[in-house]
Every structure is written in C-alpha cells, then in structure tokens.
Write a sequence for this structure.
C-alpha cells in the first residue's frame, strides 16, 4: 500500500471514529436530559426483581441518574431501605462516583460551548467555583448547598479540571451526603438504634462540612 492509500485509509478510519464519537456523545446527552427516574416503590420493586444481581442493577441506575439533572436522592433512599446503611452506602456511593466520572468525561469530549449551553442557569455558578479549581475548590463546589451534582460534573470536565483532583474531591466530599441519605432510607425502613445514630451523625457531618466549605469559599472570595 502506497503512502497515499495509507493516508486515505487513515483519514477514513479517523472520520468514522469521529462520527461514532459524536453519535455516542449525542446519545448520552439526550439520555442525560430525557430519562425519568421511577418512583421509589417502583424502583425498589425493579431492583428486587433482578434477585442477587439487583445490587449491580442499582449501581448502574444510580450511575445513569448521576449524569442527568435528576437528583440522586431517590436511589440513595432506596439503597438504605433495601440494603441497610453499610451496604447501601457502598452501592450508592459507587454509582455516584461512576456517574460523576462519566459526566466529567462526557463534558470534556463535548467542549465548553455546548456544555455550558446545557448547564443553563448553573453555568455562571460553576465557572465561579471551578475555574482553575484544585482539590479544595472541587470539595467546596461539591458541598455547597443548592448546587446539584450534575453541573459540577459537567462543569469540571468542560473547564479542564484535573481528573485526579476531580475524582479525589468527589470521593471525599460525596461521602457525608450519600451516607446521610442512605441512612435516612434505612431508618425509615427500620427504626433501630444503630440506624438512628448513623442518621444523626451523618447529618451533623453534612452540616459541618457544608459550613467549612462555605467559610473556605467566602475567605477565598475575599482574598481575591
């Protein structure tokens, strides 16, 4: 094969690869903004219907929800009622981490222009928190009240936040919120002393983390 044929072949493969990437990204974006989460009772029955593999299905559903504007509250509550505080927190946290990472890379592949059009009113807030963000700024964005998961995921990817800082901050900052929601679902299903202690402790940790993150953000803004 001569160089011209190799070049043509390479160009063809590159074009096909690019078109496939655009198609996948478009499909994921459409799914992200058009999928509706079932009601808690329906979601619970759906997961139980898969028997021993239900926890895998739950993680997959949570990951898909985490890349959409739908809050991750409902699957976290269902995890607590189905699996208890410990296993439920592990499954819910795993799904959130996977979904957050997927959203991050989805935005990196899509680019800033389209991503920030999708973010809408959240775009300005995300830029304020995440422009040149490191680990602490990412933690602050995760913990700030009123700022959902999905715009943080997309914004971090679009703005080129370091992947390791993104993953580490998401890991650390998501723990209190996930445990508090799962514990609430577990306590609603079983009002045991253990579930009550975890519930109160987790929500206290959420409040403290939120206060610390707000103080950090306010001090950083004053320094600038």
């Amino acid at each position: 094969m001569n160089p011209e044929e190799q070049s043509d072949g390479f160009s063809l493969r590159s074009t096909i690869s690019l078109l496939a990437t655009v198609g996948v990204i478009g499909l994921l974006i459409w799914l992200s903004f058009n999928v509706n989460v079932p009601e808690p009772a329906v979601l619970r029955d759906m997961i139980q219907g898969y028997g021993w593999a239900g926890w895998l299905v739950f993680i997959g559903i949570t990951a898909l929800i985490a890349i959409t504007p739908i809050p991750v509250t409902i699957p976290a509550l269902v995890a607590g009622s189905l699996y208890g505080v410990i296993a439920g927190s592990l499954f819910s946290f795993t799904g959130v981490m996977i979904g957050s990472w997927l959203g991050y890379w989805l935005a990196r592949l899509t680019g800033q222009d389209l991503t920030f059009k999708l973010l809408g009113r959240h775009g300005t807030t995300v830029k304020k928190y995440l422009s040149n963000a490191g680990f602490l700024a990412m933690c602050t964005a995760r913990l700030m009240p009123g700022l959902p998961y999905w715009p943080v995921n997309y914004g971090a990817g679009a703005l080129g936040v370091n992947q390791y800082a993104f993953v580490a901050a998401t890991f650390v900052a998501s723990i209190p919120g996930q445990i508090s929601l799962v514990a609430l679902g577990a306590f609603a299903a079983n009002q045991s002393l253990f579930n009550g202690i975890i519930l109160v402790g987790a929500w206290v940790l959420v409040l403290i983390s939120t206060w610390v993150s707000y103080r950090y953000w306010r001090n950083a803004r004053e320094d600038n």
Observations:
- Residues 73-110 form the longest helix (38 residues).
- Residues 24-223 form one domain.
- The chain is about 85% helix and 0% strand.
- Residues 1-10 have pLDDT under 50 and may be disordered.
